[in-house]
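FAQ

Q: What does a record look like?
A: Structure on top, sequence underneath. For example:
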């Protein structure tokens, strides 16, 4: 899997060299390439923004540098196997199933906007050439797309076959298909008693049936408390 990042702050992605994603890069599972969008400007000030047509606050990212960067980084041929991701507050909420789908992609290009966003023609052009995803991390506004790109990268790469030492652990996580759309149950380890707080006795009983039942009950309780929106979905084990 090749991952490209287009941003006016490419140093944001240096962190990928020290994280587990960096390990995947060393193992050859992923290739990481960060690019400075200003490298595709031609004026002295390396300008990437301009005032919004129709007026309004803030600045909008000009289309020209994006188009030239696309030509060089992706090419000028249409290829639906290339996934181009535009993080945006107006995007579709990013989910674990979206991460799972992207984990089989061979090429992902993250377009990290700044200011008030990117000229919409850039997204329209990308849609005419590649598979585009406009995604939101959640109902809050970041200053740009870089943090979202890092979060999406981690969610996707950890699902790439061969990345996780113990792939079975993925099946028990919140939001994974194996959890019936339920939140993960509380976890405990040694010591059994810590600052007057004890591990639930059932977990020390060695009775696998009771443990499984306790864990499911806890998942159902937590999901009902914290994510009632998940309890109505068809995938959840509770209705
Ligand atoms: N767009 C926009 C915008 C609109 C108003 C105010 C500030 C911004 C900043 N911004 C510029 C690029 C960009 C990319 C992604 C997010 C983003 C994603 C999630 N889930 N929250 N925020 C924000 C981004």
């Amino acid at each position: 899997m090749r991952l490209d990042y287009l941003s006016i702050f490419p140093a944001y992605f240096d962190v990928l060299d020290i994280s587990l994603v960096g390990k995947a890069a060393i193992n050859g599972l992923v290739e990481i390439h960060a690019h400075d969008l200003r490298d595709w400007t031609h004026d002295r000030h390396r300008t990437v923004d301009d005032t919004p047509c129709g007026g309004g606050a803030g600045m909008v990212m000009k289309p020209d540098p994006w188009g030239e960067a696309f030509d060089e980084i992706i090419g000028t041929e249409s290829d639906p196997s290339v996934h181009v991701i535009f993080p945006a507050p107006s995007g579709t909420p990013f989910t674990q199933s979206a991460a799972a789908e992207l984990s089989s992609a061979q090429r992902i290009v993250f377009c990290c906007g700044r200011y008030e966003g990117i000229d919409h023609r850039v997204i329209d052009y990308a849609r005419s050439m590649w598979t585009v995803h406009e995604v939101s991390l959640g109902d809050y506004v970041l200053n740009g797309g870089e943090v979202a790109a890092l979060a999406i990268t981690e969610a996707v790469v950890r699902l790439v076959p061969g990345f996780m030492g113990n792939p079975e652990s993925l099946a028990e996580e919140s939001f994974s298909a194996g959890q019936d759309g339920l939140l993960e149950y509380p976890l405990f380890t040694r010591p059994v008693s810590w600052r007057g707080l004890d591990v639930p006795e059932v977990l020390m009983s060695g009775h696998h049936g009771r443990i499984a039942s306790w864990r499911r009950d806890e998942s159902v309780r937590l999901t009902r408390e914290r994510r009632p929106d998940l309890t109505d979905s068809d995938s959840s084990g509770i209705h």
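Q: Is there anything notable about this one?
A: Residues 8 and 37 are 5 Å apart (CA to CA).
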